Amino acid sequence: MNVSETNLRSIFELDAELSQIQDFDILLERILREARKVVKADAGSIYILEKTEEDGEKIQRLSVRYAQNDTTEKQLPPGQKPVYSFFGVPLDEKTISGYCAYARILVNVHDAYNLPPNVPYSFNTSFDQRSGYKTTSSLAVPLITPDGKLLGVIQVFNAMDKNNNVVSFSKDDELLISNFAIKATQALERASITRATLLRMIRMAELRDPKETGAHVNRVGGYVIEIYDRWAHNHEINSKIHEQFRDIIKVAALLHDVGKVAISDTILKKPAKFTPEEYLIMQQHTSSGAALFDDPLSPFDVVAYDIALTHHENWDGTGYPGWVDPVTQKIIKQGEDGKALGKKGEEIPLSGRIVALADVYDALCSKRVYKQAWAEEDVLEEIKGLSGTKFDPELVDIFFEIYPRIKHIQRMYPELE
After folding, report:
1. How far apart are CA 284 and CA 321, in angstroms?
2. Residues 84, 158: one domain?
3. What is the mean pLDDT of the chain?
């Protein structure tokens, strides 16, 4: 085999970049993109092993978390992302990805439509038929930790030669993606520790506030990324800065309501609307949350502070808590009524403006003990009507531009009954 030292060196250099990504889902997306680059694949999917229950029986399945396709994406307007149909496959020998995980071996398929007669797996052509995309070559590699734990599978499709012709994946490609999978698995293990810590904090908030569910914060985090990605594209943000900030804002957005742990159960768990006095107390969750990050040690702390403090500020300055010090509660800018002036327009950090829109949209769409979920058309009308008053009008325009992606995120994280 003649694998260039440059290719192998790039994999080891990439390891340092992957280790900097904190959010598990963003890391999955980046891993898939880099895996495709390593072996020059036109498309690919990344699966995560999940435990589910069907008919009272616990089973393991591979669930697609991200899919990418250069051919499909080139047909879209600049800045727009495709919406893929996600699915799961059993952990068995019947599919290429399932067999890869089940047998824990790399699987290199030269022609998906003409498989050797002695292999146990088959290729489901219905996906190609629905998308209009022709899959030929496929390379699947399992993601296995040093202690033997299976995390998932990377599967890439259609190796491309220098003339953009579809070819088979080579033996060199097998070696490259195998080495890459080792580094990717190490990065995923690190990110899973961060995710576990976040989930514990979210569960703690959920114990205090029944509205603050894991599904809710995951949806909000997903919406935030989609809105920020389009904003960054529109503003021609440097790709490196874009990648770094999207990771930070996603993780920080998950903790937007962490300050609710400081609010009394009498108020948090009240199954009805708040009185004016209770509402004022409830507003303190913004300052309480920001106070947790008041001594910033990293860029994450700065963004988490901004989001916790300002995600209830309004574009027209009528939100809360306004210009106050979250620790001392000292008013920094005072209005004629003696109360703190609300922050308005671009005085509100971008991260806070994005989370404000994402949070309200999800709250309106969700059923609560004190209200039913709004009809989707009513939610959209409300969002549109609040443009320029509650919400940054540019972000509202972006929201409607990427609405199919918003709905996709919503389907990814359904509320458990």
Report:
1. 8
2. yes
3. 90
